[in-house]
Amino acid sequence: MTTLSNIGSIKLVECPRDAMQGVLDFIPTTLKIEYMNTLLKVGFHTLDCGSFVSPKIIPQMRDTAEVLDHLDLINTSTQLSVIVANERGAKEAVTFDQIDFLGYPFSISNTFQLRNTNTSMDDSVNTVRSILELCHSNDKNLVLYISMGFGNPYGDEWNAAIVSDWIGKLSNLGVKFFSISDTVGISNQESIQKVFALITKYYTHLDIGAHFHTTTEDWLIKVETAYQNGCVKFDGALRGFGGCPMAKDDLVGNMPTENMVNYFGIDQMGLDPIVFQDAILQADHLFKTYL
């Protein structure tokens, strides 16, 4: 097991929403609730638990409101996050007291922004402004997922400076939380190093994490490189289930949470090892049943 000097500062965001949203067979609401209540006991920093994107786009998460109303939040310090794709979804999400964070996918690829939210980048900036106002008025925080944060397969220009510049522009609007997203799993050691070396140098006042999609062979180099270049917040999903349905590749899934836990050390991270193992078993049964 790797020994790390600032291990106590590592924040893990568990993403059952990202794991579930591409599953075609509808997972019963009762099973979602049971699984997420187990995850709430593990000790994760944040649970990405639902979606207020149109059910026509993500039908699997159409029961998010019901799930939220049945989560046991009394004995947990884990915060809750949901994804939104427009102002309409944000207006609905902010009505739930349980929610701490609204996540919005902001692509630095205009091609993917159109593909993912059917809006241009300019329109997306206006959406960010609107969602920020809603968050401020309802005691929520906005997390921007910087889609295509480590490269672009669509031919749009990409480099680390573009990532950094967009974080600067968006933070000037008032955004404090970011997750650099490896949307199609094309990040490598070089791109990760360049991005995090740059943004951790200039944006020490912001909370910036990594949302990697990965193959089973590449997970370690991605986590290790990001960590060595200043990243201390990571998104994952147990067993690596899921990924982005708008950029689907069956060989690329979410960053497996259990791999990161083994790398950073479960005891030093304050996670409950018994509940964590129970959550892994539930994930195996749940996703292998409905995938």
List the SSEs and their pairings.
Blueprint: E1 11-14, H1 16-20, H2 29-42, E2 46-51, H3 64-68, E3 79-83, H4 87-93, E4 101-107, H5 110-117, H6 121-137, E5 141-147, H7 160-173, E6 177-181, H8 189-202, E7 207-211, E8 213-214, H9 219-228, E9 233-236, E10 253-254, H10 257-264, H11 273-290
Parallel strand pairs: 1-2, 1-9, 2-3, 3-4, 4-5, 5-6, 6-7
Antiparallel strand pairs: 8-10
Helix pairs in contact: 2-11, 7-8, 8-9
Describe this structure in words.
The protein has 291 residues and is an alpha/beta fold. It has one domain (8-290): Aldolase class I (TIM Barrel, Alpha-Beta Barrel), CATH 3.20.20. It has eleven helices and ten strands. It has an eight-stranded parallel sheet with strand order 7-6-5-4-3-2-1-9. Strands 8-10 form a two-stranded antiparallel sheet. The protein starts with 10 loop residues before the first strand and ends with a helix. The model is unreliable at 1-7 and 244-249 (pLDDT under 50).
